[in-house]
Amino acid sequence: MQTVKMVVTGPFNAGKTEFIRSVSEIDVVSTERKISSALEKTVKEATTVAMDFGRITVDEDLVLYLFGTPGQKRFDFMWEILSEGMLGFIVLVDSTRPETFREARSILETFRAYAPTPYVVAANKQDKKDAWELADMQHALRLDPKVKFLPCVATDRDSVKTVLLELLYSILAEMEGGEK
Amino acid sequence: MALRGNLRDFTITQLLNLINLARKTGTLIIEGPSETAQVSFRDGKLAYARIGREDGGLASILYKANKLSAGQYRAIQQRASSISDKELGLLLINAGYVTQEDILTNLQQHFADIVQRLFTWVEGFFRFENDQMPPEDRINVRLDLENLIIEGSRQLREWEQLQDEIPSLDMALKFTDRPDANLRKVNLSVEEWRVVSYINPKNTIRQIANATKMNDLEIRRIVYGLLQAGLVEICRPEGAPVPQPARMFPTENKEEQKSLVNRLINRIRSL
Fold first, then answer.
1. Which of B248, B249, B263 to mutate: most A Cβ within 10 Å?
2. Inter-chain contact B245–A169, Cβ cutoff 8 Å?
3. Using CA atoms, how far apart are residues A47 and A35, in angstroms rounded to an integer?
């Protein structure tokens, strides 16, 4: 059995667990704990402390694993471990919380430094009425226009599929580009 | 119990607070990421500070503060290297080169700068030696710690923000391809121009900092400004060995790798 992996990262409460849950064929193995910080508690009750883990069986010989990184900064020592051997990564950003954009940018730069693998950035919660527009977010996140920046609703399977497919297209394009 | 530990568990702010409140006398020795600092206190007030291999002598401090010319500094080094800072200070005052206030102000500024730099250290072992005081030949000051702690905490917040923005100094910078970005229309300070002159994908931010003699905080401040203005962007340094990712594919064969990605695409489409 062959296995490959992709990493879903992003700031606290960006929607990483939901993203993986939407496409995983197994119940996401999630190591969530009650939040201790009063400030973060106002956003959600539990957070991922080690990682989320989802699986998509491609065929009888191949399995894709999806790993979600812990969102809280104090667990960032896990990031490098999780990024080892990944095909590519997805940076998920909460479109309704501009105060997390700077951290998202920092996470993106950190993962880029770990491995020169393809990546896409997804603006999650685009279905919410207070979501920022993609063009504004692109400026706020200082994303190069060449970087794929996609709208996303992590609870919607089709939306998650689109993000995963765009990452796979980038991986394929890079493989083909590398051969020229 | 001796006052010793790791900055990860007990920060510089907490240490200075403790020294201030307990009115401690002695020397705090901190083994930082790349150099060691020694900061001495008398009754909870800053008396002396030295970092790394810096000379820390009066002549070099006054020279850096433009209170002595290069010629005067050279002459002191050649002819008066054996006299103490206290004697040198008296000689300089009597010769009319500097005033007593010049000496005290510049020493205080120099020691305060060293303490401010320590606020950016988040890793390193420290110990407080109660009976160790600065060398006898050095001039001590008496500087209240409260203002240093407040200023240091403010800088720490800025430092944390800048570290979020620019997590690694081992990346390089390149000018953006934006057609509307024109350096000639931008008002840059002398320091910013110095950094701009080194911007090249071959130079890491750390190398630029070394070339321009800036510390981590100073270079991050300037790079952050250039990034915010959209003039530059961060890139992987050219010519640097690309980190070899751990094996991404279960096979080394390129065609099999492509086939694998295509199988993944087909599977995701069918979900």
1. B248
2. no
3. 6
The structure tokens listed for B180 are 């509307």
Q: Is B269 inside any structural domain?
A: no
The number of residues in chain B equals 271
* CATH assignment at residue A54: 3.40.50.300
Could you give the CA distance from residue B90 to residue B84 in angstroms, rounded to a whole number?
Answer: 10
Could you report the average pLDDT of every consecutive run of 10 residues in chain A (180 residues)?
A: 90 91 80 57 57 85 88 66 87 92 87 86 94 88 90 96 96 79
Give the position of tokens 């991050």: B220
Overall domain count for chain B: 2
Query: Domain residues for A155?
Result: 2-179
Q: Which of B234, B247, B269 sits opposite A85 (nearest CB)?
A: B247
| Cα gap A161→A22, rounded to integer Å | 9
Contacts of A85 in chain B (CB under 8 A): 245-248
- Dist CA B59 CA B76 (whole Å): 7
Beta-bridged to residue B125, according to DSSP, are B6, B31
Question: CA B271, CA A56: separation in Å to the nearest integer?
Answer: 9
Q: How far is CA A176 from CA A114, A171, B236, in A?
A: 22, 9, 21
User: Contacts of residue A117 in chain B, CB cutoff 8 Å?
Assistant: 245, 248
Q: Which residue is it, tokens 């401040």? A: B221
Chain A's closest residue to B259, CA to CA, is: A172
Q: Which residues pair with A149 in a beta bridge?
A: A121
pLDDT of residue A92: 96
Cα angle vertex A170, ends B177, B172, to 5°?
40
User: pTM for this structure?
Assistant: 0.58
pLDDT tens, position by position, for chain B (271 residues)? 468 888 887 889 888 988 988 889 999 999 987 889 999 999 999 999 999 887 778 888 898 888 888 888 888 888 777 788 888 898 889 888 889 999 999 999 999 999 988 988 878 899 999 888 888 888 999 999 999 999 888 888 888 888 878 888 888 898 887 655 566 667 788 888 889 889 888 899 999 988 888 888 889 989 988 888 778 888 878 776 655 556 788 877 888 888 899 999 999 999 8
Q: Is the distance from CB of A163 to CB of A122 less than 8 angstroms?
A: yes
Chain CA centroid to CA B190, Å: 19
| Nearest residue to B194 via CA among B181, B204, B177, B208 | B208
Domain that holds residue B129: 4-164
